[in-house]
């Protein structure tokens, strides 16, 4: 039976990649987005650090940005609360960084067969899962409120793939948390498999 640390490494790696994709959203890459708004004036896509009009202009890259969409000037998208929520989108890359730390500690834990490092792996995966869950809840509020305001004005808006990347990463990090714990404390714990006594 293989050591559960290996699936844990895989889950943390997958979560890191998923959160990296979610973070490299508009204004950097317009294929990934949290919300797609279509009007005759163009398709606006929203990301972690800004937004783009597809085949057109992008906003500057910044933590927190003013919400607006091409052809939707009559809809109040940039209200104070929603604008403030855009600052919290930075939690996507932060959760991704925690996934990265959990991967690093997992690899170190294997390399030097140290249980403490495997426990740290699990702790960072848990923190990443928690931050990821918080920001996913914020995503659901922010993007759905915007979507509903646009729908009320008869403008087409739908949630984008970045939301599902985020929730998949949260699942992967919870799985990593559990499997790493199993790796640290189960009967396959690295040290014990190597004959070491704790
Ligand atoms: C967006 O809303 C924030 C907070 O109310 C405000 O400070 C900012 O000037 C607004 N930006 C635009 C372009 O309306």
UniProtKB/TrEMBL annotation:
Compartment annotation: Membrane
Domain of life per record: Eukaryota
Database matches in InterPro entries: pH-response_reg_palI/RIM9, SUR7/Rim9-like_fungi
Transmembrane domains' residue ranges: 90-112, 119-143, 163-185
The entry's keywords: Membrane, Signal, Transmembrane, Transmembrane helix
Membrane topology: Multi-pass membrane protein
Tagged with keyword Transcription regulation: no
Cellular component aspect of the GO annotation: cell division site; growing cell tip; plasma membrane
Endpoints of the signal sequence: 1-30
UniProt xrefs under PANTHER family: PROTEIN DCV1-RELATED
Protein name: PH-response regulator protein palI/RIM9
Organism: Vanrija pseudolonga
High-level lineage: Eukaryota, Fungi, Dikarya, Basidiomycota, Agaricomycotina
